[in-house]
């Protein structure tokens, strides 16, 4: 692979999956799956294009747009669009690779892909964002469709951006079809979609707590550290509070916000922070003496003793050192609301502690399983669009709960089947998620003749 470009994020994601497959009994029982891994690690198609748009001063600006159509074995390519200055091919390949197996774990018919642009929406006017989105979609519309590739939002792409892109697609193609998810509720969007990733994360951790405690414990009375302050963190925090837990932190790219007293964050404070984020302002715009803002910090070493950690901001936001701090301060569960939220050093620390400390260990769940609720409800939005139906919040939420339970059970049982574990030891959820997602995709690829 020495002839390949330097793509650190993608190789981290690949090595994390490949190492767990190699350290399990999967290749021993099914040696042909080594070939499947080679094939699955290369995208079916990578599209790169220029996006030329006009700012409010009448000046021409240009950005790089991408769509990585990674794997369509299980269904149309599915995965978000990210608008952020950090976007490059390595990041989008890592996200698309993760998306393949995450989508497989939902049980829905969706392939994996990811896209975006190095455009920064911060500081731009609505008119500039509209012109950019229309220009971006003028090229992307050539490559997507309801049965081909269905993008969604991600960092920098919310309801406003989805609306502008949907309108540009409709104008270019002269058809209304569900080619984007995360749409407005009055024109094809699904109820519970904004909440889905955060809610699904909490539902997954509920099953972890229930299994680990033999049904004796829940979120009630638990101290929960969260990072991020976007949709995922906001709705995860609200659901934790609803279930009786205490949220002690949030964060953004500028720093961390820590609760000073035992009451933690309240729904009213989270709503205030959500409004600040809607205005695209940093957490420094929030001022309340009950909360301490720490500039340039992540929350993990500032929260003291916590029971649960939910990294929900971006990739590699928990380091090996921070992992050791969480372990030393009594954290029992960590689950990623973000994609690849933990570094490999952090994962190694969690897994080593799990093996060494059995029932008193920390238990780690990877993002491809724990944060699958968002794309699961995107899949439900696609189903509603195809049927020209709109389901109630209760219907969607119940389906989401069922998907997250099945996802947890699948990860757990697959880990027990393929990864040796000792008496009283928690099964490896990261190994179970990787093997369960990979084998489902690989089997479909084999049936299609993609490897043989």
From TrEMBL:
Keyword Oxidoreductase: yes
Residues forming coiled coils: none
Domain called Glutamate/phenylalanine/leucine/valine/L-tryptophan dehydrogenase C-terminal: residue spans: 190-449
Name assigned to this protein: Glutamate dehydrogenase
Summary of subunit composition and partner proteins: Homohexamer.
Pfam name, any one: ELFV_dehydrog_N
Organism name: Phyllosticta citribraziliensis
Recorded family membership: Belongs to the Glu/Leu/Phe/Val dehydrogenases family.
Keyword annotations from UniProtKB, A to Z: Oxidoreductase
Gene3D superfamilies: Glutamate Dehydrogenase, chain A, domain 3, Leucine Dehydrogenase, chain A, domain 1, NAD(P)-binding Rossmann-like Domain
Catalyzed reaction equations: L-glutamate + NADP(+) + H2O = 2-oxoglutarate + NH4(+) + NADPH + H(+)
